[in-house]
Amino acid sequence: MLEMEPNPGPTGAEDGRLRPGAKRVTFPSDEDIVSGAVEPKDPWRHAQNVTVEEIVSAYKQACQKLSCKQIPKLLKQIQEFKDLAPRIDCLDLKGEKLDYKACEALEEIFKRLQFKIVDLEQTSLDEDGASALFDMIEYYESATHLNISFNKHIGTRGWQAAAHMMRKTNCLQYLDARGTPLLDHSAPFVARALRISSSLVVLHLENASLSGRPLMLLATALKMNVTLRELYLADNKLNGLQDAAQLGNLLKFNCSIQILDLRNNHILDSGLAYLCEGLREQRRGLVTLVLWNNQVTQAGTAYLGVTLPHAQSLETLNLGHNPIGNEGVRNLKTGLIGNRSVLRLGLASTKLTCEGAVAVAEFIAESPRLLRLDLRENEIKTGGLMALALALKVNQSLLRLDLDRDPKKEAVRGGEGGGTKGRDGAGVRHGAATDSSSDTEDEGAGGDGGRRDGAVSPKGDAEGGGGTEETPESPQGRQHRILVTSPGRGHKVFVVTRVESGHMVAPRCPQGGVTVSPKGDPSPMSLTLSPKVDVPSAGDVLEMGGSDPKMSPHPQRSSQRVTPSPTGDIVPSVGG
């Protein structure tokens, strides 16, 4: 067995003297410790007093050196640049095929010019090319808005370089990565960039395969982000369970995001319940919520109706293309009346009939601040239009109401006496009825069919909540009194004249006269408001298009025109 003996100290160590040949370490004085310094390279050393000719020449030489083809579209843009000092509006490379060598040649551009927008949409970027480009954009601070949409093959290294760019570039405010998959192995890099620090204000990740772990990582990271204002997550097949739970949890902690676009996902009623839990915590923050086409039904609107009075920052709510139906609108009505912030409401293609339109009209009448309402692609017929017209006369805030260009056809049934002739010789039908509670009304004949579709007693009481009452025949045709009812709101009575010849007659009534286009009239109908309503110009309204479910700030031509009437009546104008 070996025994270790202590190692004796060096000779002379006891008296503080070193033995001959021992090493010693000394340091210079503070003044002499730094012998010199090298300044970092200035990334803009090539951009001093540069000319278009110099940029074109440098790019062509780089292409020749790298043995790659020049991009004619790029050369044409460079030659059209006038003022090179500030950021140039746009560098558009959309649709050009950029391999690694083509991307390396672009450095001669980026080291000399800066841009507001760099558009790399659908440029077939691979991992090498994407990594090189993102490194250049980060180093030279080349863009404030970057579009890398529809580049499906940038891979893990490409996303890693993009995350580094997001973290290090102080000028990058807008990143559009639509159709660029962010998969499980790439998402951690982007999540880390968003959590630590980022100047991004707008992030588009539509159709980026986020469902599952990628969304969980992003939502967790964004809880601590205070700079992002707009988050677009459409077309990601987000589900109503773990995905919606992550988004609801995000809304509980993040009060900086103002726009959340979730259109064309699978949020369902269960997912909306999670989102509502987060919305209840939003005392400030979320301004726009887009839930277009998420299979939300009347059950989901029950959660939303309870939550809306607590969502005091929400100004735009778009529920278009969800089958919420009349019952869903009734669920929303109380919450909307209790809410004091909603300015724009989208209910396009939500399976509403006249009954739902009456509920919407009651909200319009109660709302002091609603600016925009979209009711297109619904089965709203005469009764619903009457209720909306009456509500518009009471409401003083609504600037725009979108309805279908072609009014829905009414079912007209023949009574016992058959058709008669008015003084002008036009045939007038007896027993015409509008049932505001029915979902569909089909053309037919016979007294039985008329009663089955809502014909009422002479007093005007309708079993389904709506009906008609005949009034004495006028010189132009027969007038019918349409009764529209809604639970808890009593009866609203309107007078309408139906003339088969197509002539429009507008009798006056205490609630305001309304005329209705004859059946099959393809002309658009415009609701006309009284002069007390301040009607904006086209540039002052916010468009909520049928094809684009979010409200865009770009003005477009509406299917309905809202113009003041010189007489103050609510009279729909027929024709262009």
Automatic annotation (TrEMBL):
InterPro entries assigned to the protein according to its UniProt record, in alphabetical order: Leu-rich_rpt, LRR_dom_sf, PP1-Reg/Actin-Interact_Protein
Domain of life: Eukaryota
Keywords: Leucine-rich repeat, Repeat
Region (Disordered): 1-32, 409-489, 506-576
CDD domains noted in UniProt: LRR_RI
Polar residues bias: start-end ranges: 555-566
SUPFAM superfamilies per UniProt: RNI-like (SSF52047)
The keyword DNA-binding appears for this protein: no
Repeat in keyword set: yes
Pfam families: LRR_6
Membership in a protein family: Belongs to the PPP1R37 family.
Protein name: Protein phosphatase 1 regulatory subunit 37
Species whose genome carries this gene: Chrysolophus pictus (Golden pheasant)
